[in-house]
Amino acid sequence: MSRASTQDARTTCPYCGVGCGVRAEMHDGRIIAVEGDVEHPANHGRLCVKGSALHETLGDRGRLTRPRLDGAEVDWDTALDAVAERLAETQREHGPEALAGYLSGQLLTEDYYVANKLFKGFLGTPHLDTNSRLCMASAVAAYKRSLGADAVPCNYEDLEDAELVVLAGSNLAWNHPVLFQRLRVAKTRNPLLRVVVIDPRITDTCELADLYLGVRPGSDARLFTGLLAWMAERGKLDRVYLERHTRGVEEALAEARQDDVSVEAIAADCDVDPERLETFFYWFASQLHVVTLYSQGINQSSSGTDKCQAIINCHLAGGKIGLPGAGPFSITGQPNAMGGREVGGLANQLAAHMDYHSPGALERVTRFWSTDSLVPHLPEGPGHKAVALFEAIERGEIRAVWIMATNPTVSLPDARRVRAALAHCPLVIVSECMADTDLLEVADIVLPASGWSEKDGTVTNSERRISRQRGLMAPPGEARHDWWIISEVARRLGFGEAFDYAHPADIFVEHARLSGFENEGDGRRCFDISALAELDRQGYDTLAPIQWPVTRQAPRGTPRLFEDGHFATPDGRARLVPVSPHGPVQALGEHRRFRLNTGRVRDQWHTMTRTARAPRLMNHRSEPFIEVHPEDARELGLTDQGLARLEGEGGDYRGRVRISPAQRRGELFVPIHWSDRFSASALAGALLASHVDPLSGQPESKHGAVALAALPSAWEATLVVAADLDVGARVYRETGYWARTPMAHAERWQLAGAPAAAERDWLAWLAEILPVAASLWCDDPADGRLRAAGIEAGRLRWWLMVGPPAELPGLAWLDERFAEAAEGIALEVGQRRRILAACEDGAADDGPLVCSCHQVGQGAITSAIREGDTSVEALGARLACGTQCGSCIPELKSLIEEERAHASHPVPDVEPA
Fold first, then answer.
1. With contact defined as beta carbons under 8 Å apart, do 152 and 143 qualify?
2. Do 212 and 353 fall into the same domain?
3. What CATH number should be reported for the domain holding residue 482?
4. Are residue 110 and residue 215 in the same domain, yes or no?
């Protein structure tokens, strides 16, 4: 490889809200490797396993490369003309409020800005919202209500400067792994730093916890209102800070005292041990430098705003804000959730953090966006928030919707109903990267968009840090950037003068100018990046990560807000707001008696359209699952790794049982990632009713009510097929359960159903669904076991094992044979003999994958522990597990503890009778 054709480039990761810097190694215009950027202040060179596999998710395979109009591929002019004509016709016949847009935190700030400008400014509809509504809207509403602005006061260094870090509703180890590693290092450097984890589930994050509170789901507000009252009763309020910088403390305390504020009563309501609860109260009240880091577990609630508010109240009451190592810190879920909020992507916002109710804001934005011949017509008030927006589509009030970079048919609650609503909507426009998603089935116009490594612009992470996400590769085929697509539609609608952008730098500069436009510098409009408004193209291209506000007074950015105690409210004082705790709206009953929690898993992202392209990310959790407490499993006759079914308000869910004492009794956990593209019925959103927080509009996604039962299946089977074989249609129809897992060179289908395996003519069934007949097979009709393989021209085309997955060998050896087959290499005689066994002679199965970075399985780790490697460091030295992203370290520690327990209580030898 020549030096001339190889270079490094810097960009930003497209996954969670940490906003890690990435260094990409380029060769001949392609990314061949990635690593963390040691100079980026968000991650200092660290990457999680998803980030380190980014280069494995690229390539043209499966990408959208041409526009589609009514199911047929067309050229761009035809597609853009159709978008403009149909939007204009809908607006003409039904008014501007018949139009809507639904955006995503996957968009770059520049894309977001142009979309908001078109929909609200020139189409005149208020109905533009974003999937950030599903994860961060409650945090936004609470910050604005209390601090006066959607302004996260903290930064990541505060985690390292704190004396106490409280993690509430956040599985940091899996969802924000790089921050978890930063916290781990901080705890090592400062032995006095304490960590408290508040979560109904015992997660890998608890590995760092000095104190764990396994609260009843939905009781978070009660816990923090109780903390506020406890602080007041014991003289732990900062009365000087409250008097100088806040309002409302007495009202907030009076509301908190409406409930019994004894530790015993609070502990009973939260279902935690009173002594542990009082320990937390004492730690929080006694330390000044306290960070409370909270995420979806707090936000995704019908009272999420109040839960966030209860946390903020406690920080204000103790003066624990605006200091190093202190503050209420909401951490975002998507890479540009905050950037979307900055430009007005939420339905209740205008651009540049202005609101409809802010005095003069509507008129100010109108004047700013006006041109010599065009004057925008902004709506007078907020539009429908996400759930309400799709309900309006269902009612026929919204007749045209443009969805960009997200899939509401999977992510929204009552997802089947959302899909049905879109299927009946007269005009559905979708901007998308991938050629095969659930949403495209209901799209009238499909526009191929550029993706990560192709898009060029900026993102803002959870600590208000703006970073460049750079376009390093050309988009495949005819895919185009979102800002360009929107601008071209605007031009065809007659708004070209206002959308005359040649480069994302032009958009960013306009966005920066608006942030400072008539911004008086009195702190009322916190979001201000006007010092970046003079950037030229070169300055934009080389822009280093920087935290807003970025003004003439703070040209290098602002690491921490409200250090002077002056807030973004009319009088400069923060508000403590009364909070009355409420339980979940989705009620448990005799039939649906289990409380459902939903969330992410370590190695996956959203609906897996990106992460499923990296096969090693599919190995940690390869199928949808239901996590169940052992007692609940025993009561219902469920077995670990057996199959079960959940029934909720809008549908059912089928997954593999994972029995875990980490679950509380009567509570379940399912992942959000699997869609109809990857499993028969594993749509978590279908289980949830569409109840929302009345202030934020955020859905109650953590508190479903479901019924749980075993899924009857007379047989299970594993089918592995070459990547070019399509077996889907017959599998969909004829099995009660299926899950599709992409492998490196093949696809694995996990199947289950009826009638009994012994009654089925498997070879005949395979002949019907596959174009290659069985060449080898070995069966045992008595117990229904069968192994078979299809070989064509000496090359392996498919492989089947009928029997429970526990009997599966490791499939890596088999996958290599599929790789050779794809290259036209025939099986050797010895390989053919071992095909049915699917492994080398004497090869041992390495068990479930633990370390995705280095592909280390549980079997190898357990063997190493038994041979004396009884620390994470020793395991890393031998097997490399835990040495890259560190996400598997909690699991490694758990395995070490399990082996120690086993060694302490060995099974005694028993002499045969």
1. yes
2. no
3. 3.40.50.740
4. no
Which domain-ending residue is among 297, 330, 363? 330
Please report, for the domain that includes residue 898, its CATH number: 1.10.10.1100
**CATH code of residue 229:** 3.40.228.10
Residues 183 and 314 in one domain: yes
CA distance 662 to 753: 30
- Could you tell me how far CA 663 lies from the centroid of its own chain? 21
CA angle 340, 700, 527 (to 5 degrees): 25
CATH number assigned to the domain comprising residue 671? 2.40.40.20
Taking phi over 0 as left and psi of -120 to 50 as alpha, with beta for the rest, 619 belongs to alpha
In whole angstroms, give the CA distance from residue 310 to residue 225. Answer: 6
Q: Where are the alpha helices (DSSP H) in 43-156?
A: 49-52, 76-94, 109-116, 137-147
How far apart (Å, rounded) are the C-alpha atoms in residues 321 and 566? 11
Would you tell me the crossing angle of helices 220-233 and 249-256 to the nearest 10 degrees?
Answer: 110
Structure tokens at 217: 């789901």
Whether 909 has a pLDDT exceeding 50, the answer reads no
Q: How many domains does the chain have?
A: 6
In the DSSP assignment, the letter for residue 421 is H
d(CA 137, CA 189): 35
How far apart are alpha carbons 424 and 431 in whole angstroms? Answer: 19
pLDDT at residue 523, rounded to an integer: 74
With 60 as the cut, is the pLDDT of residue 85 above it?
yes
* Among 235, 234, 233, 240, CA closest to 319: 240
pLDDT in tens, 44-60: 999 999 999 999 999 99
Residue 878: Cβ-neighbour burial (10 angstroms; 0-12, 13-18, 19+): middle
Phi and psi at residue 350, to the nearest 5° = -100, -175
Q: Phi, psi (5° rounding) for residue 150? A: -75, 75
CA 214-216-220 angle, to 5 degrees, is 90
In terms of domains, do 531 and 516 share one? yes
**Of 490, 517, 547, which closes a domain?**
547
CA distance 742 to 749: 9
How far CA 728 is from CA of 594, 676, 679, 765, 795, in Å, comes to 33, 11, 11, 14, 22
Let me know: does 570 contact 523? Beta carbons within 8 Å: no
Tokens of 821: 């087959």
Q: pLDDT tens digit string along 574-631?
A: 999 999 999 999 999 999 999 999 999 999 999 999 999 999 999 889 999 999 999 9
Contacts with 561 (C-beta within 8 Å, 6 or more apart), sequence order: 151, 152, 153, 322, 526
Dihedral sign, CA of 202, 683, 460, 385? negative
User: What pLDDT digit, counting tens, does each position of 508-538 carry?
Assistant: 999 999 999 999 877 789 999 999 999 999 9
**Residue 782 has what pLDDT?**
67
| CA distance linking residue 837 with residue 833, whole number of Å | 8
Answer whether residue 558 is part of any domain: no
* pTM of the shown model: 0.94
The single residue listed with the structure tokens 């049905």 is: 420
Cis peptide, bond prior to residue 755, ω within 30 of zero: yes
Total Cβ atoms within 10 A of residue 538: 9
**Whole domain around residue 673: which residue ranges?**
594-710
User: Is the same domain home to 610 and 701?
Assistant: yes
> In percent, how much of the chain has pLDDT > 90?
82
Residues 238 and 161 in one domain: yes
Is the pLDDT assigned to residue 913 strictly greater than 70? no
Q: Are residues 701 and 818 in the same domain?
A: no
In a domain, 202, yes or no: yes
pLDDT by residue (tens digit) across 429-484?
Answer: 999 999 989 999 999 999 999 999 999 999 999 999 999 999 999 999 999 999 99
Q: Does a structural domain hold residue 561?
A: no
691 shares a domain with 737? no
- Report the candidate in 175, 219, 180, 214 with the shortest Cα–Cα distance to residue 197: 214
Does a structural domain hold residue 554?
A: no
